[in-house]
Design brief:
The protein is α/β, with parallel strands linked by helices and 340 residues long. The protein has a domain of 191 residues: 3-Layer(aba) Sandwich (Rossmann fold). The chain contains 16 helices and seven strands. It starts with 18 loop residues before the first helix and ends with a helix.
Length: 340
Amino acid sequence: MARAGGTHESDVRHVPVLAREAVGFLDVRAGGLYIDGTFGAGGYTRLLLETPGATAIAIDRDRNAIAGGTGLVDSADGRLTLVEERFSALDDVARRFGHAAVDGVVLDLGVSSMQLDEAERGFSFRNDGPLDMRMGGEGPSAADVVAHASERDLADIIYRLGDERRSRAVARAIAAARAAQPIRTTRALAEIVARAVPGRPGGIHPATRTFQALRIFVNEELEELAAGLAAAERILKPGGRLAVVSFHSLEDRIVKSFLAARSGAPAVSRHVPEVAAAAPSFKLLTRKPVEPGEAEVAANPRARSARLRAAERTGAPAHVADADTLLPHLPSLSDVARPR
């Protein structure tokens, strides 16, 4: 997958955030095998391959990203395998290529600047395009959700995934507009939302939070994250490292909760069950998240909300998957996008 966090409207070409810090936590070594679960433009993978003798498997659900990585595969002299897949299946991908365990996994969550810049992908309201937002091109689109979700479900999605306080007003506006004619383009949706959410001078565009929520929902990004963390736990060898860069508080909360439960640290939410009976499967390498410095934020405004967390795998068995305890309660994508 390419980069889950806020919808970062930017003209800057995608630059990996906290990349050297994240790869540094993996302690890349010659002979080691590492998974970049969110290939994107290949920034993290290039850093992994800077270590002579290290090999990498890079995964992305976006076929455009995979197509763009063929040159890197050619130049890597057999040290890079590039796979079109969701990173939630990263352990299956490793085993598919004959690897029972790996030395490190890095994930850089969210949407990339490249995807935002491609109007035909429908991620951005700056460039008018079809209301799509699908990273992999399969499944229901944002237009399907906007067309078929109930007003109540729309409000819940926009509030929980976009932190939009006026989510009910936005949902009402969408329901009224679609009754008159289908909402098929990013510009049409942005204009509808802008009429329901008063803008503030110097503030973000009124549609920012709604677009973020729809993108996260359409791509099931939080479900992917929870499943990907569990997959990393299953495939990392003892001493293997996990590094995750997130851009949204929902993502960071999931990563923090997962690592707290797996490391035996105090639970960060009352909804996370006690797991004292299970031996810790991770040792925290970051008690607090690593944040970008002023210079990185100045050079790349997208970095301002980034948070990096890292941990080292112990020899304990992987815990039972508990994705349901990490995720907000929302209807499923398939249910919401089904014509009524």
